Amino acid sequence: MISVDLAMGMVILTQTGIGTVGNVSLLCHCICSVFRRHGLRPLTQIINHLALANMLVLLCAGISQAMAAFGLNDFLDDVGCKVVFYFLRVAWGNSLSTTCLLGGFQALRINHKNSRWAEVKFKSLKYVNSSCILSWMFHLLVNIIVPMRVTGQKNSKNISVKSSLGYCSRLFINTITESIFSVIFSSIDIICLGIMMWASGSMIFSLHRHKQQVQYIHSTRQSCKISPETRAIKSTLILVSSFVIFYSLSSALEIYVYLFDNPQLWFVNTSVLLASCFPTLSPFLLLKSDSHISRIFSSR
Q1: Which of helix, strand or coil describes residue 47?
Q2: DSSP one-letter string for 258-297
Q3: Which one of 120, 186, 281, 295 is at 20 to 30 Å from 220 when CA atoms are compared?
Q4: CA-based Rg of the chain, rounded to a whole angstrom?
Q5: How far apart, in whole angstroms, are the C-alpha atoms of residue 150 and residue 172?
Q6: If pLDDT is split at 50, 70 and 90, which confidence band does 22 have?
Q7: Strand 163-164 vs strand 168-170: parallel, antiparallel, or unpaired?
Q8: Is the pLDDT of residue 230 over 70?
């Protein structure tokens, strides 16, 4: 009979494979669109950075956690563990920031009729790629403490560890340092989630207003089709909402793992599985909506 850990490892590995193929396909699709349109559009730039971040999350978290679920707890040494965890946190943070940027950009775009927002949108187009690059640099810097907070399983036998994560162990530095960085990470998350909620609310309001404006026109036709703009907005709304849901669930489990010493491996596996859901699903949703998004931007 297959054990729970082995089954979870197979599920995580399958999820990692599907998500990686999806993000690679999305990157290739965006690269091909560059040659077709002779340049990168702002939305394509954001999607490129999001796909890259999501792919790193899947490779760093999925493969490592799957190996631990299969019983290979010592396959990473101390340096390997620090490198994997560092780039995992950098990629996860950048996925958060880029999704936030995507939601904000779409919210500004659909409010183009407002002169104030139109001006903000026009200025923001110049700094989309710069914002994405700065996001990478910011998370590379702010996560510099991560390697000091983890160690390999072999080294954990000689030092005091807070909890085992399967293939790595989490260390406790000191109360002041832990508190400072907890506040920093929490503040970043709260700000990004707040912007996402604002963007979602703005898009929902715009969809409702658009529906009211065309209600009379639709009532005079036998069949009505959803406009490409509406479909693109709905796709972005689903993308942002799914990120918030999966992020909230995985964060709740991660807090439990952090607060309690030596959590069971299946609990850690579940946390990784939930955290990898968004990087796995997002490329397919973006690929599905790309034709509608492309049609909108080519007409502007």
Answers
A1: helix
A2: HHSSS--HHHHHHHHHHHTHHHHHHHHHHHHHHHHHHHHH
A3: 295
A4: 21
A5: 9
A6: very high
A7: antiparallel
A8: no
Sheet holding 163-164, edge to edge: 150-152, 168-170, 163-164
Burial of 299 (0-12, 13-18, 19+ CB in 10 A): exposed
Nearest 5°: the CA angle 144, 145, 146 is 95
Asked if residues 263 and 257 have their Cβ atoms less than 8 Å apart, the reply is: yes
Q: Which residues contact 264 (CB under 8 A, 6 or more apart)?
A: none
Please state, in angstroms and rounded to a whole number, the distance separating the CA atoms of residues 60 and 57.
5
Angstrom distance (rounded) from CA 247 to CA 274: 8
Helix 228-259 to helix 175-213 angle, to the nearest 10 degrees? 160
Q: Identify whether the C-beta of residue 92 lies closer than 8 Å to the C-beta of residue 62.
A: no
What residue type is 235 in one-letter code?
S
Helix (H) or strand (E) holding 163: strand 163-164
Burial zone of 160 (CB within 10 Å; 0-12 exposed, 13-18 middle, 19+ buried): exposed
Which residues have CB under 8 Å from 11's CB, separation 6+? 273
Structure tokens at 30: 């965006």
d(CA 268, CA 293): 37
pLDDT of residue 167: 77
3-state secondary structure of 136: helix
Percent composition of the chain: helix, strand, coil (DSSP 3-state, to 5): 80, 5, 15
> The pTM is what?
0.82
